[in-house]
Write a structure and sequence with these properties.
With 331 residues, the chain is an alpha+beta fold. Helix content is 56%, strand content 13%. A hairpin with a 3-residue loop joins strand 6 and strand 7. It is found in: Cell membrane.
């Protein structure tokens, strides 16, 4: 649920996890005096562009200047940074499913996590966080701070699967139409766009996969025992999606190569036909040019049937050329 009062402070969502899969929403004014039970954890989700967010992060969050600088950086890539006191920074990327946006223009979410506290920052809205809040409201969400990270990463990865499947289906449809109709010519711009989308997603998903692999080996004392299994499964999922993206790029490349080859063959056939036609008319052009010389002694100039003889000669030459071309298997 969206709290307009919190939004005035740049706080998009604030929840206290009850340790049973549910959570209660809290107001911005409760943060300064918030006392957590041993089984509880707090999740604060902020709008990074809001001035109050930066003010709170530097003055009231208790985070070091170094951590604040990292979380407020303009451009970041997926990364994992362990911090003293068993804390960590986790930067992830999710597909951009906002209206009018390109999914491969991936949205960054910056996360500071400790045993009972998770602080996340985003610039643009993410469907994954909205779905996570729905799970908390239904009592089916994460119970601890470590599970909150796993749930968020899982939801982000699920969105990647949908986009990867969409790209795969586009390429499948393109290949089927090419196989079914030899005259079908896929639009070059669409193929390049698919390839660009796959490359853009792969750029961020590859380091994110490495992060999941690192979290599989992480030994944070506040991690739940089976967290490593979930991180390993997410690592395997992203590996599969990266392989599918790479395969999509290769398939698009093969389609482009096949299309270029078809165009070259068509152009070669056309030029070959033009060459045959030119070869047929070249001797006749020579004869007409020779007979058209305006000098004395031109054969047949005084013969009333000279023109007929000239036409008959050119027909004979043309027929002879056609016979020769067929004999040489040029046509």
């Amino acid at each position: 649920m969206f709290d307009e009062t919190n939004a005035q402070w740049g706080l998009v969502h604030a929840f206290v996890l009850d340790g049973k899969g549910g959570a209660r929403s809290i107001a911005r004014t409760e943060l300064d005096c918030l006392q957590l039970e041993p089984h509880e954890s707090v999740w604060l989700h902020w709008d990074r562009s809001h001035p109050q967010t930066q003010t709170w992060l530097r003055s009231s969050s208790g985070l070091s200047e170094f951590v604040c600088d990292l979380m407020l950086e303009e451009n970041t890539r997926p990364r994992l940074l362990p911090l003293p006191d068993n804390e960590l920074l986790l930067f992830l990327r999710g597909v951009n499913l906002n209206p009018g946006a390109e999914p491969e223009d991936m949205v960054s979410v910056r996360i500071f996590a400790a045993a009972q506290r998770v602080i996340s920052l985003r610039l643009r809205s993410l469907r994954a966080t909205d779905e996570l809040i729905d799970l908390l409201n239904e009592g089916k969400g994460p119970k601890t701070a470590s599970e909150l990270l796993v749930y968020l990463a899982q939801l982000l990865t699920d969105k990647v699967q949908a986009v990867v499947s969409e790209l795969t289906e586009l390429v499948d449809d393109m290949e089927e139409r090419i196989d079914a109709d030899e005259r079908y010519m896929p639009e070059h711009g669409n193929m390049v766009h698919i390839r660009r989308r796959a490359a853009g997603m792969r750029r961020f998903l590859h380091p994110q996969r490495e992060i999941y692999a690192q979290l599989t080996r992480s030994k944070m004392p506040w991690f739940v025992d089976d967290d490593a299994d979930y991180w390993n499964e997410l690592n395997n999922s992203l590996t599969r999606y990266l392989e599918e993206l790479e395969l999509t790029r290769e398939r698009v490349g093969l389609v482009l190569e096949a299309e270029d080859r078809r165009l070259n063959e068509r152009m070669n056939r056309t030029m070959y036909r033009f060459g045959i036609i030119t070869g047929i008319f070249l001797p006749m052009s020579f004869l007409t040019g020779l007979l058209g010389i305006n000098v004395g002694g031109i054969p047949g100039s005084d013969n009333p049937y000279g023109f007929v003889f000239a036409c008959a000669l050119m027909i004979v030459v043309a027929v002879g050329q056609m016979w020769l071309f067929k004999r040489l298997r040029w046509v």
